[in-house]
Amino acid sequence: MAAILTLQALLSLRLRNTAFQDEALYLYAGHMQLRDLFGGPPANLGFENYFSGSPWLYPVLAGAVDTVFGLAGARALSLAFLLGTTTLLYATTARLFGAGAGIGAAALFAATGPAIFLGDLATHDAAALFLLALAALTVVRAAATRTVATLAAAPILALASAVKYAAALYIPTICVLSALAAAPYVLWRRAVGRALLQAVATAPILLGLLYAGGLFQALGRTTTARPRGGADQLALLWKATQWGGALFLLACAGAVLLAVRAGNFPGATKTPGAFEPPGAALWIDRAPRAALVLMGVTLCCTALLAPAYHMYLRTGVSLHKHVGYGLLFAAPLAGLAVAGAVRSLRRGWVVAVAAWACVLALGVAHSARFFLTWQNSSALIAALDHRVRPDGRYLVEVSEVPIYYFLDRAEPRQWTSTYYVRYQDRRGNVLSGDEGYRAAIRDGRYDVIVLSWTATPGTADVIRAAVEASPRYRSLGVIPFRPVHGPGGFHVWVRDRTTGGESKPGGTAG
User: Fold this and answer.
1) End-to-end alpha-carbon separation of the chain, Å?
2) CA separation for the pair 55, 222 (Å, rounded)
3) Most buried among 46, 64, 116, 159, using CB within 10 Å?
């Protein structure tokens, strides 16, 4: 495990890029709310209306870490969560299938692209994964004890779902896991009762957290009632297969072998995991055949939840992150498959190493590609460094990134993105959309305008036409970048103080 965790850390730490849009958003939100908490001006930026997780949980924690250690520290926090997730995965798998399967599950999960990527990304996904892994271990370890002990997972599940709303998709899996884990020790009706009790105990805690934070609107916008997109469903399935298909196939093999060989499956071992007391009984040695079959089906189907939901919504946004949630639940079966190969085949260790090497090669390639899907903003930040002032106004296509980097000298309200504008011109007319941008540019509202045609290309075209038609602005040229999807650049304009742009701009904008 020490070797696996070391390799996982090195694979994540090798990734390099400036802050991603979501990272910048969560970190500056955390800073704003910490400032509010300690007597500063109220944030009042409505984070609770559109975040895909509670703005008062992960962002505040990450913002506190960022205050001391910067972006590298916030990303190291995610790495700590992912290393903890891998460790908890080992402990859960070892309890179910033995130490060999636990090592296999940990090694395979740590080598996947989503796990490597999320280990160096300052978003709430790493914390949510850690909490889901902790909930899974809690119900498995409490399986042989009284029913009430399994309820310790309820607040953990509720917290995971509040940290990241998408984690609620896996509450049913944890509930079913609590029943299957208890199957060797209690009657079936009592095992099913545990699952129902787990769900009943989790629901009010989660609803209380959402109600207390006023988060129901964001839950609908970002997760449950998200508008359907236009992405090709087969293309989404192909992407999910690329990112998690290798481990999923191993999990399917583990599920089949688990069902066919049942209690005599060669992957089972009498050696408990490192976190188990001597003589601890393995679940696989005591579980009835029905529980073995259902365990394989449940964990394999759980791995398909995120891709299926994205295909239903026809959107690829965050699919590369959400695939990792399912891989966490498929990994125990994959570890069982490679452990079985080592114990039953003549050169089984060759098969196991080859399978892991395949997952690793794909994971290294995919994680590097994930980390280059957004523009490196270092040159842009350097170019804006002497132009950002406490009284300036800035229109930037992806405004979250400069907001984060210049939070010490400019407030978020000074920045406008290309997603939305509400502008009141000199005549008192309140305008939004394309007309709002045209009027604001005509009045010389912004000191600097930056477009990249990566987030809202249609709106960027409207803004460019308005800027080029205005005598108030002059071009500073293009700052090139090369993201993975092709070359491009930041197009920068500034108010020209030699052609009338020096006059005080009119109107107000938000």
Assistant:
1) 51
2) 13
3) 116
- Report residue 200: phi and psi, to 5°: -65, -35
CB atoms under 10 Å from CB of 301, counted, come to 16
Q: Going along 230-297, which residue ranges are E strands? A: none
What span, in angstroms and rounded, lies between the C-alpha atoms of 359 and 250?
Answer: 10
What digits encode the pLDDT tens for the residues 96-139?
A: 999 999 999 999 999 999 999 999 999 999 999 999 999 999 99
Cα–Cα dist 292/295, whole Å: 5
* Tens of pLDDT, residues 14-37: 999 999 999 999 999 999 999 988
Strand 394-396 vs strand 448-451: parallel, antiparallel, or unpaired? parallel
Distance of CA 431 to the CA centre of its chain: 35
The pTM of this model reads 0.93
Residue 278 confidence (pLDDT) above 80 = no
**Residue 396's closest CA among 444, 447, 451, 453?**
451
Three-state DSSP state, 265: coil
Structure tokens that stand for 64 in this block: 């506190």
Please state, in angstroms and rounded to a whole number, the distance separating the CA atoms of residues 323 and 466.
41
CB 81 within 8 A of CB 127: yes
Q: 408: how many CB neighbours lie within 10 A of its CB?
A: 7
Condensed to tens digits (0 to 9), the pLDDT of residues 229-266 reads 889 999 999 999 999 999 999 999 999 989 886 545 44
Separation in Å, CA 42 to CA 25, 32, 36: 17, 8, 5
Exposure of 140 by Cβ count < 10 A (0-12 exposed, 13-18 middle, 19+ buried)? buried
Asked whether the beta carbons of 325 and 129 are under 8 A apart, the reply is: yes
Residue 279 burial (C-beta neighbours within 10 Å; 0-12, 13-18, 19+) = exposed
Q: Where are the alpha helices (DSSP H) in 214-347?
A: 216-219, 233-261, 283-286, 289-303, 305-313, 319-344
Q: SS in 3 state form for 129-161?
A: HHHHHHHHHHHHHCCCCCHHHHCCHHHHHHHHH
Ramachandran angles phi, psi of 474, nearest 5°: -130, 150
- Supply the DSSP symbol for 51: -
- Residue 420 · residue 406 · CB < 8 Å: no
Can you name the residues that pair with 423 across neighbouring β-strands?
Answer: 431, 509
